[in-house]
Amino acid sequence: MRSPSERHQADRTRKHRQSLRAQRAGDGRPRLQTRLIGGAVAVVTACAGLFVATPAAFADTVYEITGEWEEGTPAVAASGDVVTGVWRVNINDDAAAPSNDPVDNVTFSVTLENGVFGELPDACLADGVDPVSVISEDGATLTCNLGTRDQGTAVVVQTPIEVYGPTGSQLTASGTIAGQTVDLDPIDIENPFGMDIRWDTGTPHFLYGGGYFEMDLQWTLSKDKGSESGPQTVTYDLTIASAQGSAIEIAPQQCAPFTAGAADGHPWSGGNHPADRLTSFVDSCEIVQTGPNTFRLTLTGIDYEPTNPPTLDSAGNRLPTDEVALASGSIWIRVLTDAAGSVQLTSSAPTYTSPTGATAQDDPANNTESKAWTTPGLYSSGWARGHTGSGGTTWDNTYRMAAGTEVAQYMHTLYQLHSGR
Fold it and tell me: Over 60: is that where the pLDDT of 407 sits?
C-alpha cells in the first residue's frame, strides 16, 4: 500500500496531466485558426483557378487600306478616258495571336474629284448587307460593303473610273476605311478643244398657209466633253434650196428656242419637258437672208459650263456621251408654193477658236437637214415614226432603226393633210 505521501504525489501528477490535456484542447481556437488559414488558401486558389479558366475577350478588328492605279495608267488623261484604281483592304485584329474571327459588313469608301464611277464592282454587295453598296447620285463616291470577312485576310477590289474634268484639273481618288485613308497619285487632265453644230434630222411638222408651207429646222451646238470654252459668237453660212425651185424666205418666228416636236439628236431648249432632255438657248440668235437661197445664222452668248446638261434628245434617244449639248434651237422658213415638195439645208463648217487660241474644226458630216411636205389628198400610207419616238417625216429619207425594233405602218384614205405624214 502507498503511503500517504505517495498518494498525495500521485494525486498531484494526475491533476497536472488533466491540466495539460485541458490546455491542449483549450476552446478550439488553434484549430479554427488553422481552418481559416486553410480556407483563405483555398479561396485564393479557387480565384486563381477561375481567372485562368476565363476565356479571353474578343480582339478588336484592325483595318488597313492601300491603293494604287492599275499598272500602265498614264500620268495624263482626257475626259472620257477610263482608268482603274486597285484597292487592298486588310482585316486583322489587335491580339498577339490572331483569332481569325469573322467580321460582318466590312465597308470602305472611295471619293473622287473630276471622275465618276460607272457601276458597282463585283466584290461590292448590294443585298443582305448593311449598309448596301452604292454609288452616289453624282457618281463621285463609292460605298463598298464586302460582306463578312475573316480576320487575318485581305480583299483586292478594282474600281474603273471615268475621267471627267476641265483641262488643267486633276483626277484624284481617296480610299477610306475605319478612319484609315489612302490617296492615289493625282492624274493631270488635258482635253482637246472641240466644238460642233449638228443639224441632221428635224421635227416632222409643217404648216400650210395658203400659197406657202411653213416649217422649222433644228440645230444643236455642242462641245467635246471636258473641252475648254469656245468663242461667245459663232456664225454659219446656210444654203436652203427646194428641189422644186420654189422661192424661200425667213418665217416670222425667225430663230427661236426648240420647244415642240421630236427631232433625233436635238434636245429641247424651251417648253415643259423632262430636265434630262432640256438644254439652254443662246442669248441671241439671228438669221438673215443674204441671197435667194443663202442665209447667215449668228449665235451669241453661249453657256459653255451648263450645270445639268441633257443626256437624251427630244425623241428620248441617248445623246453622244463624248459631247455636251450646250444649246439648241429652231430656224423657221417659208417655201412659197402650193405644191408638195422638199427643202435641203446645208451649213458651213467653220473653224472655232477658243479664248486661249486653241482651234477646232466643225464636223461637216452632220451639217445637212431636209424636210418634205405633202398636199391634201385621198390616200396616204407610210411608217408611223411616232410609234418609235423618231423625228423626221414620212417623206424624207432619214428613218433609221436597229434590227429587231418594232415599227408601225399607217394608211389613210380620207381627205386630209397631216403634218407628220
Answer: yes
Beta carbons within 10 angstroms of residue 317's beta carbon: 16
Grid cell locating 93: 485584329
Any idea which residue has 483563405 for its cell? 40
Nearest-angstrom CA–CA distance, 294 and 298: 14
Q: pLDDT tens digit string along 353-404?
A: 999 899 999 999 999 999 998 876 655 677 777 778 777 666 666 778 888 8
C-alpha distance from residue 371 to each of 89, 141, 363, 420, 421 (Å): 60, 46, 21, 11, 12
Cα separations in angstroms, 248 against 203, 213, 329, 339: 19, 10, 20, 14
End-to-end CA distance of the chain: give it in Å, rounded: 163
∠ CA 251-255-261, nearest 5°, is 90
Q: How does strand 187-189 pair with strand 76-77?
A: parallel
pLDDT digits (tens, 9 = 90+) for 98-112: 678 999 999 999 999
Q: How many CA atoms lie within 13 A of 44 on its CB side?
A: 6
What span, in angstroms and rounded, lies between the C-alpha atoms of 360 and 351? 6
Q: Mind listing the pLDDT tens digit for each residue in 27-86?
A: 444 333 333 333 333 333 333 333 333 344 457 899 999 999 999 999 999 988 999 999
Closest by CA to 176, choosing from 257, 247, 112, is 112
- Confirm whether pTM is higher than 0.85: no
Mean of the per-residue pLDDT values for the chain?
85
Q: Return left, alpha or beta for 271; rule: phi > 0 is left, psi -120 to 50 is alpha, else beta.
A: left
**Which is it for the CA torsion 367, 373, 379, 380, positive or negative?**
positive
How many other β-carbons are positioned within 10 Å of the β-carbon of residue 97?
A: 8
3-class DSSP assignment, residue 84: strand
Q: Are 223 and 360 in contact (CB under 8 A)?
A: no
Whole-angstrom Cα distance, residue 120 to residue 336? Answer: 58
- 43-52 pLDDT tens trace: 333 333 333 3
Close Cβ partners of 341 (under 8 Å, ≥ 6 residues apart): 213, 242, 243, 244, 246, 335, 372, 373
Question: What's the pLDDT at 234?
Answer: 98
